[in-house]
Amino acid sequence: MKPPPFDYHRPATLGEALDVLAEAGPGGKVLAGGQSLIPLLNMRLAAPARVVDVNRVPGLDGIEAGPSGVRVGALARHAAVERSPGAAAAQPLLRQALRLVAHPVIRNRGTVVGSLVHADPAAEMPAVLALLGGAVRLASLDGEREVPAAEFFTGPMESAARPGELAVSAFFPALPARSGTAFHEVARRHGDYAVAGVAAAVTLDDDLRISAARVACVSVGPVPVVADVTAVCGPRPAASVAWDAVAAAVRDLVEPEGDIHATADYRRHLTGVLAVRALRDAASAAHGEES
Amino acid sequence: MTTRLFGEPVQRREDPRLITGRGRYLDDLGAGALAAAFVRSPHAHARILDVDVSDALDVDGLVAIYTWEDLPGALAEPLPLLIPHPALTHGRTAYPLAREIVRHVGEPVVMVVARDRYLAEDACALIRVGYEVLKPVVGLEEAAGGAHLVHDDVPGNIGAHLVQEVPGPGGETAREAVDAAPHRLEFRLDVERSACTPLEGKGVYARWDADDASLRVYSSTQTSTSVRMAIAAKLGLPLPKVEVVAPDVGGGFGVKIVHPWPEEILVPWAARLLNRELKWTEDRREHFVSSSHERGQVQHVRVGFDDDGRLLGLEVEILHDHGAYTPYGIIVPIITSTQLLGPYKVGAYRVEFSSVYTNTVQVTPYRGAGRPQGVFCMERTMDKIAAYLGRDRTEVRAANFVQPDEFPYDQGLTFQDGRPLIYDSGDYPEALRMLKELIGWDSFPEEKARAAAEGRRIGIGVGCYVEGTGVGPYEGGHVQITSDGRVHVSTGLTSQGQGHETVFAQIAATELGVPIERVSVVTGDTRRFGYAVGTFASRAAVMSGNAIALACRKVREKALRIAAEALEADPRDLEITDGMVHVAGAPSASIPLATVAVLSNPLRYAFDEEAKRATQFAGPASDDRPPVAEGEEPGLEGRDYYSPVRSTFAAGMHAAIVETDPDTAEIRILRYAVVHDCGRLINPMIVEGQIHGGVAQGVGGALYEKMVYDEHGQLLNASFMDFLMPYATEIPRIETAHLETPSPLNPLGIKGAGEAGVIPVSAVLAAAIEDAEGIPIDRMPISPSDLHTLRRSR
Ligand SMILES: Cc1cc2nc3c(=O)[nH]c(=O)nc-3n(C[C@H](O)[C@H](O)[C@H](O)COP(=O)(O)OP(=O)(O)OC[C@H]3O[C@@H](n4cnc5c(N)ncnc54)[C@H](O)[C@@H]3O)c2cc1C
Questions:
Q1: Fewer CB within 10 Å: C terminus or N terminus of chain A?
Q2: pTM for the full model?
Q3: What confidence tens digit (pLDDT) does each residue in B458-477 have?
Q4: How far is B29 from B699, CA to CA, in rounded Å?
Q5: What is the rounded CA–CA span in Å between residue B741 and residue B515?
Q6: Do the chains contact at A191 and B792, CB–CB below 8 Å?
Q7: What is the A83 CA–ligand 1 centroid distance (Å)?
């Protein structure tokens, strides 16, 4: 469990980082928090020729919260975003989700953007970005481009980031007024990747009926599975939604696989249960915001 | 400062060192040593065709590459079969490096030595081993079917087959008793594989001293004395030229009692050959695929009982999976077969096991060592009887208990030490009474009804066990008081975090009447104590604890003899308090133990003020006696051994309340209660710590951990990401109560406590989940996904 040989780079500026990444091409790997990359190296599941440690690059650790949403820089740690009052106010789902990501010590090092690029279909933050319709900003020597969530996650552990590109930030949009969010998951142990999990966002209309309801499900497909369930939920007050029908609708949308921790049938069942729990909590959060 | 420390909750003296990072574990040693790494088989069963090392030779820093062909003499022979047994007719062990055939994924094939571990692994990755893949045998029933063989010369894959029978009170066989009983049940139970998974894996560091022609080996082992003998024998070295030290060891739980591991002889051999310091530190993946596993069994039960749930006859057939090799014999299924009986009288009993080979990692004892499976079997049986008769589960158990006035109680079987299974003492009805009170057994039905009214499902379960602890053959202790008043205690068995430095010091301080601060304890260092067996079977406190007490008594007697002369008193009138020998009731007539130590060693040369007292012109010694009297030895030290006639039997009962989520099938332990009887307690805090750790491992085995092999014999979850050892967050608060029925077998009246906590947990949690769900739970571990499947198939 020692990595194969690689060249280690620790650029001091963004420009330098992009130079090294361009030169390295497909053989280059960005090192951010290292909580996923280092285990992959140690188990010799990844063998990059060059590891580009961006931890000394200044200006990448920003967390900018505003009325339109939250922009999270590449070096903003899970823990920093989790604790940021501004981020929590602008987009409460960030904190709700981050509490479910790994353990405190891992959140102290791991980065939100790293988690997006890593694109584990069981991870929370890709589901959050997908649910909210956020985007990732990628930089290279050719300039910057903004990739929307719907195009960013391309497969299990695969994202749209190309060789030579550094993800410099991600943007998590805020939701309209009278909206609420929630994240529910079942993990085998505290802090483990979820067996199944659902992030939900609900918006109410002036009469407090559900006018928009969306879920993003983890661990039930190659990428986060986003479903719009507005039609099954609304336009009704949360108390009179046929939740069993909602659960059934979500179950029909996912195509989980079985593995050593859970059967496909259990994952599908669980996704329905968790979708209802998350949607109901999101609806009451939306109510709470109203009162 | 009190010297009466036996029985006190003294804080663990090793903890400040261990929890502030000052522990010295194997990998903390030998910073400049060369590193070894191994090419291990990627196949469960294959013939080795060739080994091509040419690419690896380019690795800068490569020192050596070895295969089986390179091994000389005894090193080229199969590893020892440590515990032979007449029923183990087809015992097989591996070669240190595979010879022709590999029989499980992870079996070592090539050893690489390089400047550091990184380079050694780089070289490993470049070595190409050609294999002809053979049909793997995976799964107990498939193996027992015998369609394909793990070892060509072991028909049916059966390594051992053993039947033990005890007739009923009227001489009836178990079969007859079951057939004639008013009620009968028949069922099948399954327990899956798990493993010890100590946080520190194995490791070996060897230093050859060419000038002295001697070898020093550090190993993360549970038995340094026996590793030493194995190394001397395998390398052809004189025993006095080999020293083995167990440094701080980060957990063992059984896996490190197996020895010699291939690495334990290969590393010293190569260190000597290369005349270089050499170290191997096992990594996590290696530990999963090349150490040991345990637990996997299938059990078929037939039981006959009367209207009160009293057992009349019990027949158990066990299929035991021992993996690819049997270096530790058949200790595990023997323990399952015998300890299955627990605190009960079962009428006529027949137990039969077949221990079978599979192309998986070998099976050797893991904390509990076959008992968790046996207790699962018996306690599930008790619950099924209670359910069948519609009786309270604790009543059925109580109806079968061995009674307090029936000790010593002979179960009529042969135990793992080859001695009769005779329980020495216990009070099972009292333990059950205490447990029911602790958990609130009698008021639980109301609690359950209240929960049900809120849409919640809760259930309660109970489980009882008896554990044979402190098996022989012996351990020894050495105690020396030096002229500075310090007390040096050593024993040959090893420590893996149990708190031996504390409890052995408590025993010595109490026996000698010295402050504990003056006592230091060394374990597992053959330079200090050469004769020992090792740490396993909950034996350290019983064996070394008693040996150290006996050694202390020798020293005390000698100290009193010398002090009596100096004080011109009768030794029978003397006492030792706070390190001072004094006349009882007259503290002014006293002499420090330090001075007694000086006087015990007649000197010619004075090297300090104290020593002057013992020189030839210092005192009025009598002219007609030799300075060292006949039958005496210089120095204030003593050595003694404790060797029991047979094991002593600890017992305990656990109860748990669980909640199952009606929607997600998640299982949560709401309460966990333990009543524990390990005879006299040396240190209740340490015993509780042992129980907590044991219960935690039990929860792991019941709800989280299993070894998932696919049909090709690949272990699918060989990492802590997928092998779900529970975190602290998964372990409930554990409520404990102690009962003390002293053992009549040893001077201190103690029984073992190390393994106890883990033993009944699977049985208890299965019972509680069954109670919550109303679905029979016959297979452990159980995950939420499993529970969901059970609900679906109801
Ligand atoms: C025990 C454990 C439990 C965990 N549990 C969870 C969990 O429950 N949920 C969860 O979501 N995660 C979990 N994680 C993963 C953790 O959240 C990681 O921190 C995260 O997935 C990756 O972030 P990182 O900064 O550590 O990335 P790194 O490990 O540094 O990198 C991961 C990958 O992303 C690439 N990368 C990183 N940053 C950039 C960038 N700015 N631009 C381009 N490429 C980049 C790297 O090249 C690499 O391929 C767990 C990790 C551990 C060790």
A1: C
A2: 0.96
A3: 999 999 999 999 999 999 99
A4: 34
A5: 28
A6: no
A7: 18
Question: In sequence order, which residues have a C-beta less than 8 Å from that of residue B302 and are 6 or more positions away?
Answer: B178, B184, B185, B186, B313, B314, B315, B316
Per the structure, the count of domains in chain B is 3
- H-helix or E-strand spanning residue B694: helix B684-699
User: How many beta-carbon contacts under 8 Å exist across A and B?
Assistant: 67
Residues B308 and B442 occupy one common structural domain:
yes
Identify whether B721 is part of a domain: yes
The verdict on residue B155 lying in a domain is: no
Which parts of chain B register pLDDT below 70?
1-3, 619-621
Strands (E), B70-152: 101-102, 108-114, 128-133
Give which of B439, B465, B451, B429 is closest to B341, Cα–Cα.
B465
Say yes or no: CB of residue A167 within 6 Å of ligand 1: yes
The parts of chain A modelled with pLDDT lower than 70 are 289-291
- Report the CATH fold assignment for A1-53+63-174: 3.30.465
Instruction: Decide: A31 in ligand 1 pocket, CB within 6 A.
Output: yes
At B72, which CATH number?
3.90.1170.50
Dump pLDDT digits (tens) for B87-96: 999 999 999 9
| Chain B residues in contact with A271 (beta carbon < 8 A) | none
What pLDDT, on a 0 to 100 scale, did the predictor assign at position A268?
A: 98
CATH number, domain of B546, equals 3.30.365.10
Instruction: Give nearest CA residue, ligand 1 atom 2.
Output: A102
pLDDT score of B620:
62
Find the domain containing B61 and state its range: 41-134
Asked whether residue B621 falls in the same domain as residue B655, the answer is no
Interface of B with A in 651-710 (CB under 8 A): 663-666, 704, 708
Residue B1: its pLDDT value, please? 38
Residue A153: both structure tokens together: 């996650």
CA angle B145, B151, B154 (to 5 degrees): 65
State how beta strands A143-148 and B158-166 pair: unpaired
Q: What are the sequence ranges of the domains in chain A?
A: 1-53+63-174, 179-290
Structure confidence at residue B2 (pLDDT): 45
**pLDDT for the residue numbered B621:** 63
**Partner residue opposite A189 with nearest CB, options B663, B727, B789:** B727
Contact yes or no for A1 and B704 at CB 8 A: no
Chain A: residues touching B (Cβ < 8 Å): 1-5, 39, 43-44, 186, 188-192, 195, 260-263, 265-266, 269-270, 273-274
Q: What's the confidence (pLDDT) of residue B31? A: 94
Mark whether B667 and B615 lie in a shared domain.
no
**Would you state the CATH architecture of domain A179-290?**
2-Layer Sandwich (3.30)
ipTM above 0.90 for this complex: yes
The CA distance from A76 to the nearest CA of chain B, in Å, is 25
User: What's the A37 CA to ligand 1 centre distance in angstroms?
Assistant: 7
